[in-house]
């Protein structure tokens, strides 16, 4: 029986030599890029045997600090090249040679399939169909609904116990969920309140993201048998079931509404209606894209909005600046907030951008290099099939571009400070053809919500915001929630 392990070792050795010969060009180009020593077969897999997303952030930071703004690591046979240089990031993300998502996005596909979020052959056409629902014209049409739901949120917060600290995220996510359902999903409020699994999906979203992120970053969970033995596959199947049922209910309700009432206004048409009317997607594709755009719109908006409120609670001088500016621009009466009004709120914009810098919507993004492309003034060539890693969290904390990057300082977005900084060092919504589809929508929703809340309550919190622990699960958030207190304002004045 001694021949069995010998045969296995021989087979692995032969495959290893075959692989190296087949990928000779990749290996030659990789030699020119600094990075930690890699072992045969597993590469640098041992480096990534980490327990938390925070340790992943620390590891990437350590690699960049050790090897510079360009470095490589191997996950088995997958070559990953990390690029932190802002100019090259723009070059790469706007190039048609790097227009496909990386292999880690495969772990999202059980929930959302191939498409806008995960890439594949259909993403470009699916995005084109959905884009009109996210543009400025559509967002203008959604402003009335944003105001209405933000008023409800402000009323809820104004009735909270004055002395009780609470996690504002749970109230905010109820608001953003209603907004997304009644705009992008095209549903009525009554339909939204009766959606199958809606509350459960909203509450479990963070667990879903945690599960996906762990599968991405722990190499042993790349093996289906390991996920099955550990029970993770059972959990993933449950997530898939409840999200599929939610999406199916949304699509079913919109199909019935279209059949009964037709289509009224193209400018405010939701994405689900656009997909149904296009007749270019299968039923499964419509469900996948429905959940992709639902969860990325309501959950991300809730986290960012909650963080803006928390920043203001921790920064009372900025809260007063933002509040006084609201009164100056909009007046004392709690009137409708238009998109033009929002453009005049410069102090709010600075706080909003500092949130996007400090808490990246995506800590990392990964792309697959489809054609060789040169960076670093021609000194580095990225080989075909390389996984490009853009560490947005680290780019936003690079001390070469950000003074005291670990501190929260909205003033870094004053015009005179912005002028002195490379514009590509701030990429919260990514760049290029695969950038964030919902940036205009989310910005209007979040700022409207904050304006309405600040008109009704004053926000308070204890300690320094920089002391709050971060957690990474796809995006970056505060590990222990967005905890603050509120005090009602009377007649617009404290």
From TrEMBL:
Residue sites binding heme per the record: 436
Cofactor dependency: heme
Cellular component, GO, one term: endoplasmic reticulum membrane
Domain of life: Eukaryota
Bilayer topology annotation: Peripheral membrane protein
Subcellular location: Endoplasmic reticulum membrane; Microsome membrane
SUPFAM superfamilies xref list: Cytochrome P450 (SSF48264)
UniProt keyword terms in alphabetical order: Endoplasmic reticulum, Heme, Iron, Membrane, Metal-binding, Microsome, Monooxygenase, Oxidoreductase
GO MF entries: heme binding; iron ion binding; monooxygenase activity; oxidoreductase activity, acting on paired donors, with incorporation or reduction of molecular oxygen
Family to which the UniProt record says this protein belongs: Belongs to the cytochrome P450 family.
Purpose of the protein: May be involved in the metabolism of insect hormones and in the breakdown of synthetic insecticides.
Protein name: Cytochrome P450
């Amino acid at each position: 029986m001694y021949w069995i392990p010998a045969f296995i070792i021989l087979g692995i050795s032969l495959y290893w030599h075959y692989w190296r010969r087949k990928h000779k060009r990749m290996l030659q180009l990789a030699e020119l890029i600094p990075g930690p020593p890699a072992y045969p077969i597993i590469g640098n897999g041992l480096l990534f045997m980490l327990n938390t997303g925070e340790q992943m952030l620390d590891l990437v930071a350590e690699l960049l600090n050790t090897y510079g703004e360009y470095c490589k690591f191997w996950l088995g046979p997958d070559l990953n090249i990390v690029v932190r240089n802002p100019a090259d990031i723009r070059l790469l993300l706007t190039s048609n040679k790097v227009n496909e998502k990386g292999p880690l996005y495969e772990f999202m596909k059980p929930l959302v399939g191939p498409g806008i979020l995960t890439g594949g052959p259909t993403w470009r056409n699916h995005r084109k169909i959905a884009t009109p629902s996210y543009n400025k014209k559509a967002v203008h049409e959604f402003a009335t609904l944003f105001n209405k739901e933000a008023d409800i949120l402000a009323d809820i917060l104004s009735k909270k116990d004055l002395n009780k600290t609470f996690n504002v995220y749970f109230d905010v996510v109820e608001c953003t969920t209603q907004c997304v359902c009644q705009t992008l999903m095209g549903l009525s409020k009554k339909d939204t309140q009766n959606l199958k699994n809606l509350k459960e999906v909203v509450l479990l979203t963070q667990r879903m993201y945690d599960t996906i992120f762990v599968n991405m970053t722990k190499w042993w969970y790349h093996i289906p048998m390991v996920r099955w033995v550990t029970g993770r596959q059972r959990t993933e199947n449950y997530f898939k079931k409840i999200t599929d049922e939610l999406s199916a209910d949304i699509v079913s309700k919109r199909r019935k509404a279209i059949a009964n009432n037709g289509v009224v206004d193209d400018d405010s048409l939701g994405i689900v209606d656009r997909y149904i009317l296009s007749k270019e997607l299968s039923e499964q594709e419509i469900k996948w894209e429905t959940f992709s755009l639902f969860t990325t719109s309501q959950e991300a908006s809730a986290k960012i909005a909650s963080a803006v409120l928390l920043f203001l609670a921790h920064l009372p001088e900025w809260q007063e600046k933002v509040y006084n500016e609201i009164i100056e621009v909009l007046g004392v009466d709690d009137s409708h907030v238009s998109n033009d009004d929002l453009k005049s709120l410069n102090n709010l914009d600075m706080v909003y951008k500092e949130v996007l810098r400090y808490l990246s919507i995506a800590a990392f993004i990964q792309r697959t290099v489809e054609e060789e492309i040169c960076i670093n003034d021609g000194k580095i060539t990225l080989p075909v099939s390389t996984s490009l890693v853009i560490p947005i969290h680290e780019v936003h904390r690079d001390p070469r571009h950000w003074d005291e990057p670990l501190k929260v300082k909205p003033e870094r977005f004053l015009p005179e400070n912005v002028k002195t900084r490379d514009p590509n060092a701030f990429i919260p919504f990514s760049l290029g053809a695969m950038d964030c589809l919902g940036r205009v929508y989310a910005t209007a929703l979040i700022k409207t919500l904050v304006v309405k809340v600040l008109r009704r309550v004053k926000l308070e919190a204890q300690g320094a915001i920089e002391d709050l622990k971060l957690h990474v699960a796809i995006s970056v958030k505060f590990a222990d929630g967005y905890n603050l207190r509120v005090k009602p304002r009377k007649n617009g004045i404290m």
